[in-house]
Each structure stands twice: as structure tokens, then as C-alpha cells.
Amino acid sequence: MIRQKIVAGNWKMNGSVESITALVTDLLKADSSNSEVVVSPSFPYLHLVSTLCAQNDQIKLAAQNVSDKASGAFTGEVSASMLEDFAVKYVLVGHSERRSLYGETDDVVALKVQSLINKDFIPMLCIGETLEEREAGQTLAVCERQIKAVLDLLGVEAFNRIVIAYEPVWAIGTGLSATAEQAQAVHSGIRAFLASFSESVAQRVQILYGGSVKASSSRDLFAMPDIDGALVGGASLDAKEFLEIVKAAG
Ligand SMILES: O=C(CO)COP(=O)(O)O
Known about the structure:
- Homodimer.
- Substrate binds at residues 10-12, 173, 212, 233-234.
- The active site is at residues 95, 167.
- It comes from Marinomonas pollencensis.
- By secondary structure, the protein is of the alpha/beta class.
- It is built from 11 helices and 8 strands.
- Helix 1 runs parallel beside helix 11 (239-249).
- The chain starts with 5 loop residues before the first strand and ends with a helix.
- The protein binds 1,3-dihydroxyacetonephosphate (13P).
- 1,3-dihydroxyacetonephosphate binds at residues 10, 95, 167, 172-173, 210-213, 231-235.
């Protein structure tokens, strides 16, 4: 099955009105691409970026997080229905920084996925193992456990509306990318795991790789049969570098 590639930039907690306006302006100058290009600013800049991109269907918007609650006394949280007021298509869920720094459990992540699917957003479900887990041979078991929490709550068909981002924790922000072969091995393992529940869902689901993706490493990654794009952190803050990655995706 041909799956469209997605190249998504996770800007994390970076940027200002000035720098983001400049970055988006540069991205909008790029030639159109066969891949889907996504950018993920912090909440305060969603409106700015959606306004800047309004005349151009080339760039889709992702939020970096969402509350698992619908509304109410949850100071500092942002609900899925609030995101409906912006042109948001995707929402990152379960990023390793959320899991490790803010205590998000597999169960909370699954609830967030549920709140997004109920509102017709596409969750980008981030999964991945730590270095210790990799060295203990637990890479796939960890990824399967993180996916299973969502499967148990929502069933396999939900994955027709979910993008998976495999982001090994040891590769995030370290400059130490998984090799294309290492990433491919995990991606195909994730797809095989989903195939044990539904072959058609497994064939359809887009699995992105994230973790120190650079223009120089992206071509090899994208040549792999089960790598359907990238979730890019640091390199997505540089328009030239990010656009090189988009170009490598075809
Ligand atoms: O966490 C990431 C994307 O969500 C990856 O970050 P880096 O590309 O900076 O390693």
C-alpha cells in the first residue's frame, strides 16, 4: 500500500512572534510537495500560524498536547474543543518529554487520544524506548505496551485515525539518530503488532520516525518501506534544513 509521507516539525517550547513569522514565511516560499508538511507550535502561536498559512493549503497545523478532560477547573490545561477554534489537524500525544517530565502514563495518553478522536483530530501518538530499555532488549515490548493502552481503550479501528511516531528516547535531542535499519526494524515490528489485530489497519497506519532527524539522515530513513515520514525537533526550527527534509520525503 502507498502511504503518503508526513514531515512534521515539533517546535517544542521555542519561538516568538518574530521568529515564528519569519520561519513560516520561509516555509511558505517552498515548492509544493507530495508529502504532507506539518508544523507544531506552542499553543500561544497556533492562531498566528494558522493565520499565516490561511492562504496556503500546503502546511497543516499540529498542537503539541491536549488535556484528557473536556472542560472545567484544570488551570493551565487546553481542551480538545478549544483546539477546534483553530485550524488544527493533528495533535501530538504522549511525547517522551510529556511522559518523562510531566508524568503522563500510558493510560492518560490513551484518554487524550480518545478526547481527540471524539473531536475528529488526528492524534500523533508518540512511543519509544529509553536507552536502558533498548539495551535490555525491550524495545518492541515497550512500544507494544504503549500502543496496547490505546488499543484496550479504543480498539484497533481507532488506528485508522491515528498516526504513530516512533521516537526512541535516546535519540531525541542527542544528535544520535537511530540508523535507518534500526528504525525500520522497529517500524516493521510495530506494524506486525497491529497486524495481529487488523491487517488492513496495519497496512494503512502511517508510522513516522523521530529523534535527531537531519536533512543528511532523512533520505536513508525515507527509503525504508515502513518509515512513512518524520517528526523533526531541532532541525525543524531552521527553514532551510526542514525544507531539505521535506524534499527528501518526495
Ligand atoms: O522529539 C522530537 C520530535 O518530537 C525529536 O527531537 P530532535 O529532532 O530535536 O531530536
